[in-house]
Amino acid sequence: MDLVPAPEEPLTRPLKSVLGPATAKVMAEHLGLHSVGDLLHHYPRRYEERGQLTHLADLPMDEHVTVVAQVADARLHSFASSKAPRGKGQRLEVTITDGSGRLQLVFFGNGVHKPHKELLPGTRAMFAGKVSVFNRRLQLAHPAYELLKSDTEETAESWAGALIPIYPATAKLESWKIGKAVQTVLPSSQDVLDPLPAPLREGRGLVTLPEALLKIHRPHTKADIADARARLKWDEAFVLQIALARRRHADAQLPAVSRAPKADGLLTAFDDRLPFTLTEGQRKVSAEIFTDLATEHPMHRLLQGEVGSGKTLVALRAMLAVVDAGGQAAMLAPTEVLAQQHHRSVVEMMGDLAEGSMLGGAEHATKIVLLTGSMGAAARRQALLDLVTGEAGIVIGTHALIEDKVQFHDLGLVVVDEQHRFGVEQRDALRGKGKQPPHLLVMTATPIPRTVAMTVFGDLETSVLDQLPAGRSPIATHVVPAADKPHFLARAWERVREEVTGGHQAYVVCPRIGDDADEAAEAKKSPEGDAEKRPPLAVLDVADQLAKGPLQGLAVEVLHGRMHPDDKDAVMRRFAAGETDVLVATTVIEVGVNVPNATAMVIMDADRFGVSQLHQLRGRVGRGSAPGLCLLVTEMPEASPARRRLNAVAATLDGFELSRIDLEQRREGDVLGQAQSGARTSLRVLAVIEDEEVIAQARDEAVSVVTADPDLTSHPGLRTALDALLDADREQYLDKG
Question: For the segment 285-336, what is each residue's pLDDT rounded down to a tens digit?
Fold first, then answer.
């Protein structure tokens, strides 16, 4: 007799081998569920209690809902229609109630017979459908339903316990069908491998994984749900932190060239010329970076700094240190406007130190080149030559830096500005251009709460610049309720005029360009929906209205992403030179644009932007010695969530506080999920903000497990869970947060 093979891990079994092809197909296509594990980790959204009814008054419009309610009455009507001209058309109207509110159900045609027999007054059932409004009343048209019979019959068995799980569902697959599928696979979950090492689980008083899966899908009490969630949160946090800890461990094994700065080279010459002293924070962060650069494995550091905290200066000093040590540094910017601007400001800050190999260049000087996609052929050829010969110590560019043709003499440091705008492949391609992996410094002006940094950028060491350099001015922010108080908007334009009269300049930001009819459709929808009646305001329209109306006589120009790069650059130069009074722009100015004389910003349809984005945009004013003013214009009503969000932005300049608010208002999944990786988010019960403690503890535990056993040889359950989390795409994605 053959030896019995090791038992198959039940979670990896494909659903089509367990459920039947039709159901499995719908689950795969509409819910992204492919294996038994996927289905068991598709947790209920909430639970209904058998003795209680859903609050019908709180149902969201246009969403698929599942409700538990009681039939109050049912009436069959006949009517004439084109299909049934002799009054033979039938419509069944059923009113269901939760004891306080009522909801109308409607069935037509041949679909009336079954519900007419089954939905008798007093019957309780689960109903699923899309909520719509008809004659100013909420209704569900042709809902699917499942009768809840008395507790003695079989349905009670299949809905074991007093709590009915309500699953995230779709029109094609109702919650109770998902529930039945879960009941089919639940028995096999009792043999799953447990990813948590037993001492850790017991030490923290967590239930086993089989028990947690049973309790989350078939709870008898609320305590069961709490036990299950506590355990499943740990799994998510721990498996993710194991992945990141292994990544850090692997990176620490890579070789890199140590780049210790010279005592009196280019960096010293640069520091001697600075017209100001570095802030305490800049000195501390620079010291952390220099320590990393001097080691023989690659630095992986995330530099977080509030808008205007002087990150670029810290990055430039790191690049100069690498040039001093004989290497080259590359700075990757997300847009051409930003690359050109970084190049200009670096050359200005360095003066003749940026004139290496030129007559009149300073003794320690190096050459600084710009490389973007729209450069002319001759300039591009020269830039490529300067890089491959080592003539240029520093290159600043867009993703054009990543192309195959670009070769370096000795790439020692890569600085990535505004991390979230770059894909993993792009960063990897640039890292691959060094003879050995270069050191990596990632900069972001989006403040990231500590737990998110530990989760999303968990394989990077983090440095934070949280003080503004001397001479920066405070920014006053006000919400302008254009619909409730139109005179406030008129006053906003007067304020812009006053700033210009005082010798300053202003930005007006709009969500849309307006050169394309279909753009309105794609334009970012506001989280509410009331303002959906009109498309978001557009740069081209607003600029035109302002120039002819409230800002007549001022020099108004436009800037947006679809302009030719040369035109964009020319507009930015005129604005920087003070020739333009008001720049009407899209969010292309969100990152890095630095015009100290611009003191006012008016953001139109501010409710269409996220909290962090508004904070970023606002950081473009108040960059000089004059105070900044930011006006958030909205038509949203006083009580709406959008207004609460805008009030939060107006109330604080603390980016970390705002990023917390932002996270609490967006779904957690966006942190790790589609927004960043394109993969389905792996966070189902872990809430990055609330579960700070779990994440921090999981990180510590993960580090000790990986240090002792980097290949997880003695943790087969953990390996399986890791493989499920990190399919090839996610593994790639985690490669650089």
Answer: 999 999 999 999 888 888 888 766 788 899 999 999 999 999 999 998 888 8
139 HSE (CA, 13 A, CB side): 15
pLDDT of residue 505: 93
Owner of token pair 């009343």 = 137
How many Cβ atoms from other residues are within 10 Å of residue 480's Cβ? 23
Q: How far is CA 479 from CA 36, 379, 489, 603, 605, in A?
A: 50, 47, 10, 10, 11
Whole-angstrom distance, CA of residue 216 vs CA of residue 167: 11
CA dist 322 → 253, 439, 533, 603 (Å): 21, 10, 55, 40
Percentage of the residues of the chain whose pLDDT score is greater than 90: 22
Q: What is the pLDDT of residues 201-260, one digit of tens each?
A: 999 999 999 999 999 999 988 899 999 999 999 988 898 889 888 888 887 888 889 998
Distance CA 17, CA 604 (A): 54
d(CA 194, CA 11): 11
Least confident range from 66-80, 87-101, 353-367, 569-583: namely 353-367
Q: Alpha helix locations (H) across 294-409?
A: 311-324, 336-350, 377-389
DSSP-assigned states of every residue in 101-113: -EEEEEEEGGGGH
Mean residue pLDDT of the chain comes to: 80
Percent of the chain with pLDDT over 70: 81
Q: How far apart are CA 466 and CA 308, in angstroms?
A: 10
Asked if 440 contacts 431 with a C-beta cutoff of 8 angstroms, the reply is: yes
Contact 472, 596 (CB under 8 A): no
Tokens of 508: 């007006």
**Alpha helices of 75-149 — where are they, by DSSP H?**
113-118
Packed helices 692-708 and 222-253: angle between N→C axes, nearest 10 degrees: 50
The secondary structure of 709-730 as a DSSP string is -TT-TT-HHHHHHHHHH--HHH
Read off the DSSP letter of residue 495: H
Please, what sign has the CA dihedral across residues 645, 649, 652, 655?
Answer: positive
Coil, helix or strand at residue 152: coil
Are 572 and 620 in contact, with CB atoms under 8 Å apart? no
Give the integer Cα–Cα distance in Å for 510 and 438.
39
**Angle 655-665/611-618 helices, nearest 10 degrees?**
150
Max distance between CA atoms of the chain, in angstroms, equals 99
CB atoms within 10 A of CB 153: 11
CA distance 303 to 595: 23
| 734 pLDDT more than 50 | no
pLDDT at site 548: 92
Q: Which pair of structure tokens corresponds to residue 630?
A: 């930011």
Listed in sequence order, the residues at least 6 apart from 327 whose beta carbon sits closer than 8 Å to its beta carbon are 257, 259, 410, 411, 412, 413, 438
Q: Which two tokens stand for residue 365?
A: 């000087």
Burial category of 486 from C-beta neighbours within 10 Å (exposed 0-12, middle 13-18, buried 19 and up): exposed
pLDDT at 224: 92
* C-alpha separations of 433 from 412, 427, 438, 647 in Å: 10, 10, 8, 46
Beta pairing partners, 94: 74, 105
Neighbouring residues of 144: CB distance < 8 A, sequence distance ≥ 6: 127, 128, 129, 174
Look up tokens 């519900």; give the residue: 115
pLDDT at 176 (0 to 100):
80
CA distance 165 to 188: 19
Rg (CA), the chain: 30
Question: Reading across the β-sheet that carries 300-305, which strands appear in turn?
Answer: 367-371, 392-397, 328-332, 411-417, 439-444, 300-305, 461-465
Are 52 and 166 contacting, i.e. CB atoms less than 8 angstroms apart?
no
- What is the number of residues in the chain? 737
Beta partners for 603? Answer: 509, 632
Q: How many CB atoms lie under 10 A from the CB of residue 136?
A: 5
Name the pTM for this structure: 0.64
